[in-house]
Every structure is written in C-alpha cells, then in structure tokens.
Amino acid sequence: MQQVPRSTNLMGHCILALFVIVLGGENYSNAFDYFREKPSYVKSCKIYEPEFTKCSTESIQILITQLAKGIPELEGIVRRLDPFIVDDIDFNQANTEAANLHAHLTNLTATGLSKLQIKESRVSKRDFGWLTTILVPKLRLEGHYQLNGRVLVLTLQGEGHMFIEIDDLAIVMRTKTKLIEKDGFTFYNITDLRAEIEIGNLRTQFDDLFGGNNKEIEKSTNESFNKNWQEFFEALRPLITETVESILFDLLHDVFLAIPASFFVEDIPTPAQFYNNKV
C-alpha cells in the first residue's frame, strides 16, 4: 500500500475542518453574546409609570450586586468587577496653576467596585440617557506609572509602582446612549460618559520618584501629598476623573450590550419607534 505523505494528511485535515466550519457553521456561532431570556436577577421597571426612578435604582443595584458575585454567561465578555482591569490611561494636563503634567498609567487594576452603591438611577424619556448618582466607599487604583511635569510647586519625573486609595468616592455620572436593535431586542449602546467626582480622603504612594535616586526626598514628597491630600487631589482631579470615566465606560458598555434594555425597561420603545417619531 502506498503511504500518503504526512503533508498531504495535514492538508486533508485542514480542508475537512474548513468544510465543517462552512457547512456546520451554526455549531460554531452559538457562543454566548447576549441574553435572549431575562435573567432572574434583572428587575424590570416601566418608565411611564410613577416610582420609575426608585424601581430603576433598585434594578441597577441588584445588577451590580450580581456582577460582583459573578455571572457565568458573561465570563470573557464583561470584565471581573473586583479586581477590575483598566485599559492604559494616557493623560495630558495643560499648564495650569495646579499642574502641568503628562501621566501614563499601565497594568492598572481597580479594587473596591464590588461595594459600589447606586444612590439614584434616572433615565431620560427624551433621549434615554442616564443620570446616575454613585458611591464607592473605597476605591484602590494600583499599577505602573510614568510622570513628567509639575504638580503644585513640585517638579516630578519618575516611573515605577504606584497606588491611589480613595475613600467615599461620590460620582455623578451622565451617560449618553443610542438605542439599537438586535434580533428584535432593544439595547442601550453607550456612546459617551462623563463623571463629576468628590472624595472623602486620598492616600497615594509613588515609588521611584525622581528616578529613585533620593529615597529621602521621595519619602518626604509622598508624605507631603498625603498630608495635603485636598490640594493634591485638586491637582490630580482631571486624571482621577478620566480614570473613573474609563472604568465605568468599559464596564457598563459591555454589560448593556449583553443584557437587553427592554429587560430593565419593559415599555422602552424600539429604535425604529423612538427615532422615527423624532424625524
């Protein structure tokens, strides 16, 4: 019997695999992308009924609590809530009285989001945007930093490990959404998110400031930041705000493309109904 060359066998396997994918593709397209039945932990509300804001606030809080516990279907689609892996942050603050700073944050993780509290969740009937009031009792951001510039009266240049701990982070979040439809389901597509923040306390540690060449100055600088945290926070407010916005956008954008908006708001119009009425 003539032996088939190994390369021919390999080619045959590749061709067979291609036919399986093409002809039986439905077996490969059943990976989870969104819920087609309402999960038991999603509380439905009606926007055109009284007490909607109270119902919506409870509904989103229940969702956050469930996300903290873990939702198996969303594994690999929505990032873990705690710790939450943050995309790299590249930040430039123009020359102001408080700071003139370039910062690049990488390998960043946020912990404490599992305790996030929804104080109020309002949804606009006009455009289905959100106004959400949030409290995070303690948020810790940790990762690698690069700083170059000035904060207050200090010229800073360094690179290394850092953490920022924030107590009582109060957030007013304004979110723009566009209603979209998939397979007859209405979804929120978050197009923009802006946050205003206030805090109760701030603790920071930046290792290897000034190139790590003078540990005494590095220590006294970090101590000064923590002693005068209100002034330091005001200088870093734009950077911290941008980081909070990035965290919330990445989390909520993915969640609300996986769970239909119509599961949360029973009487939400379809995109066709809503946008055609505005023409």
UniProtKB/TrEMBL annotation:
InterPro entries according to UniProt: Haemolymph_juvenile_hormone-bd, To_sf
Entry keyword set: Biological rhythms, Signal
Superkingdom per UniProt: Eukaryota
GO cellular component, one term: extracellular space
GO biological process, one term: circadian rhythm
Signal peptide: 1-31
Pfam family, one: JHBP
Coiled-coil regions, chain positions: none
Keyword Signal: yes
Keyword check for Signal: yes
Family that this chain belongs to: Belongs to the TO family.
Listed name of the protein: Circadian clock-controlled protein
Organism: Glossina pallidipes
